[in-house]
Specification:
The complex is a heterodimer of chains A (290) and B (360). With 290 residues, chain A is mostly helical. Chain A has one domain. Chain A contains 12 helices and 2 strands. In chain A, a hairpin with a 5-residue loop joins β1 (127-129) and β2. In chain A, α10 crosses α11. Chain A is globular. Chain A starts with a helix and ends in a 15-residue tail after the last helix. Chain B is built from 15 helices and 4 strands. Chain B starts with 15 loop residues before the first helix and ends in a 13-residue tail after the last helix. In chain B, β2 and β3 form a beta hairpin. The longest helix of chain B has 27 residues, at 223-249. Chain B has 360 residues and is an all-alpha fold. Chain B has helices at residues 16-20, 26-45, 48-73, 81-99, 103-122, 130-154, 176-198, 201-211, 213-218, 223-249, 259-272, 277-300, 304-307, 311-329, 333-347, and strands at residues 161-162, 167-168, 171-172, 251-252. In chain B, the strands form 2 sheets. Chain B has a two-stranded antiparallel ribbon. Helix content of chain B is 72%, strand content 2%. Chain B has one domain. The interface between A and B is large, with 43 and 46 residues.
């Protein structure tokens, strides 16, 4: 039972992060390898906002969430906008370079020690007992709920929202979308904002649950196989992919070897790339983009 | 990616042999001689620190040359470079620890291991392209690193594997000067291999694959074979670089082969300039020396001691900024700058290259 709970929690962490990869890839066909760092930045923003404004903690969380969305939009406007139409490798390397820059900046500003934003916000992270003898911390449970909420709202946004439909259009056929009067730059900026926002929420919740330092980047990177296994342009796929990756990871750690933790997602990824490179639910694209 | 610039002030070649020659003009021959003399005399005047830096540059150069073959010339994106370096280093480490094998066994075996890994890394390239290929090599990097870490912890070398310096007939190679010349000749060999590959059938096939796969296939180039060949050659060279690194440092540990190392090598070929061997050299020099420049600059600031423990963070941030600047403002890299200066003087007093007439 505890294993099952662990899988669900880990899967929702991965899913919440993976939807950031999916959003950006689906709209602009760019793989954002700085997602882990942006997510960490969001968590650190919460730390700063929480310790400077001693108002209501929920106000601090809201402010940090808005700030992180702004960060995503700024990244697009000042950086990724210039990479439109460049080689795939150039765009990916730009995101990697951004990641390195952020990693350095975060340490310079907030130091490399493990921080606990939960203290500055004044929450207590109790452990809940679930039926079946399993235990789960409040914030881990919150991650599951938030993931469900985020996916639900993203689904409705993309399905029925005016901007959501525009985003899907831009992703399907940028030229046609632009000719129909959709401002692609706005759409791309929106995608980056949304992606950073969801990633940051994941980062904040994880930081509240278990502390905050640079190891969070690794979790961000490990969520990427989840996105790819499900299909890089499918949100439902990301959900299922996260479940598969998290399931494989938790079970293998438990039954085989704890050291496997960092490789399992990538082993799943390799298996998937050999079998179905476009993922479980992804649209089969011509993989000819060099 | 570049049109070859005229090397003399005009196109003066009259036969294929001249077109094929490594050294074209008298000036080139003279400057090459001077350059070689400088490299040979450098260890006589250099300090220990400068020697070490030069050796690091040489090691990086072998790695960046092999990545340039793969990514710059064959167009196959790889994010698994650190994994291959680690494979070479661990081959040496494991063979030394388990069998006390001398270097003339371990180095060729490292190349073989690299080649086999190259096949494994390269097989996905037959189905995957671009982004997906990059991701699959990235995944393989983690697998290799995991296997290395597993070996370390299972055999009780959790901090790393110590390796004795290689010995030839009882004489141990430990002096930095000797290492300088060994690594210099290794770089020269790697460079010659690359140049010769590039001016032969294989190099032409790779460039055709990079520029347009379908057209290359239509021209009768065996895509699958040449792609895997690119991976094999590049990986074997990388693994040898990793093995030399292991001997040079006398120490192997998975910590040295993080994802950041891969990014550094990718940065070398981006900053140097894609599709140019000169770019690989310049990039390797730049990326290797860069942290020391940052350190020197930071130490020159007032209150330097306060920053001392922040150094790696400053390095990261500055490295990220430099990479972004190059990607956005100078996608052709240092070579692009160099070519612009060159063609400015070659074309002088004209500003633009003539369209017709002396092509090439």
């Amino acid at each position: 039972m505890q294993l099952f709970v662990n899988i669900i929690v880990l899967a929702s962490i991965y899913a919440l992060i993976a939807c950031g990869y999916v959003l950006i890839y689906r709209v602009s066909r760019v793989l954002n390898l700085a997602h882990g760092e942006l997510m960490m930045l969001g968590a650190y923003l919460l730390l700063t906002v929480g310790s400077t404004f001693s108002g209501h903690p929920f106000f601090a969380i809201a402010a940090a969430v808005v700030l992180s969305a702004c960060v995503g939009i700024l990244v697009y406007v000042f950086l990724m906008r210039r990479m439109t139409g460049e080689m795939v490798l150039a765009a990916v390397l730009t995101t990697i370079a951004l990641g390195i820059l952020l990693r350095g900046l975060v340490v310079l500003i907030w130091s490399a020690q493990v921080q606990y934003p939960i203290k500055s916000l004044g929450f207590v992270n109790e452990s809940l007992a679930l039926p079946g003898g399993a235990r789960v911390s409040i914030f881990a449970a919150l991650i599951v709920i938030v993931t469900a909420a985020v996916y639900g709202s993203l689904f409705f946004f993309l399905r029925f929202g005016r901007w959501g439909v525009r985003m899907r259009a831009a992703g399907q056929n940028p030229l046609l979308a632009a000719q129909r009067g959709i401002n692609l730059h706005t759409i791309y900026a929106l995608a980056w904002g949304l992606s950073t926002l969801t990633g940051s929420i994941a980062g904040m919740l994880m930081a509240l649950d278990s502390g905050l330092d640079a190891t969070m980047i690794v979790i961000g990177l490990k969520a990427f196989p989840a996105a790819l296994v499900g299909g890089l342009d499918s949100l439902a796929g990301a959900l299922l992919g996260s479940l598969i990756v998290a399931g494989a990871e938790v079970l293998l750690i438990h039954y085989v070897d704890p050291l496997l933790s960092d490789v399992v997602p990538f082993l799943v990824l390799i298996a998937m790339l050999f079998a179905r490179p476009w993922g479980l639910f992804g649209t089969r694209e011509e993989l000819d983009r060099v | 990616m570049f049109k070859a610039t005229p090397r003399a002030s005009g196109y003066l070649r009259t036969g294929y042999a001249e077109d094929f020659a490594l050294v074209g003009t008298r000036l080139e021959r003279a400057s090459l001689l001077v350059f070689m003399l400088v490299l040979l005399l450098f260890p006589l005047v250099a300090s220990a620190f400068q020697l070490d830096l030069a050796c690091q540059v040489f090691l990086a150069t072998i790695g960046s040359l092999s990545l340039m073959l793969l990514t710059g010339y064959c167009g196959q994106i790889s994010l698994g470079h650190a994994g291959l370096l680690a494979a070479g280093a661990f081959t040496v480490g494991i063979l030394f620890r388990e069998a006390h094998a001398p270097f003339w066994i371990t180095l060729p075996l490292a190349a073989v291991v690299g080649g086999v890994l190259g096949v494994i890394f390269g097989l996905p390239s037959l189905r995957l392209r671009g982004l997906y290929l990059a991701v699959s090599t990235l995944a393989l990097h983690f697998v290799v690193i995991y296997l290395g870490g597993e070996y370390e912890s299972k055999r009780g070398f959790s901090t790393g594997i110590m390796i004795d310096p290689p010995a030839i007939g009882g004489y141990e190679i430990a002096s930095p000067r000797v290492w300088y010349f060994i690594l210099l000749s290794a770089v020269a060999a790697a460079l010659l291999i690359c140049i010769n590959l590039m001016r032969s059938r294989t190099g032409r096939a790779w460039r055709a694959i990079r520029d347009h796969e379908t057209v290359a296939e239509a021209l009768g180039i065996g895509i699958a074979g040449y792609k895997v060949l690119a991976f094999v050659i590049s990986s074997a060279m990388t693994a040898v670089a990793g093995a030399l690194f292991a001997y040079y440092r006398n120490f192997v540990s998975v910590e040295a082969f993080s994802l950041f190392l891969t990014i550094q090598y990718a940065a070398m070929i981006i900053i140097g300039g894609m599709g140019s061997l000169l770019g690989a050299l310049l990039g390797a020099v730049f990326v290797t020396v860069f942290p020391y420049i940052i350190e020197a600059g930071l130490m020159a600031l007032p209150g330097a001691q306060r920053y001392a423990n922040m150094l790696f963070a400053v390095n990261y941030a500055a490295f990220g900024v430099v990479m972004i600047v190059f990607l956005i403002f100078e996608p052709l890299g240092l070579v692009g700058i160099w070519r612009r200066i060159q063609s400015y003087f070659l074309q002088w007093p004209f500003k633009h290259r003539t369209v017709g007439g002396s092509r090439k």
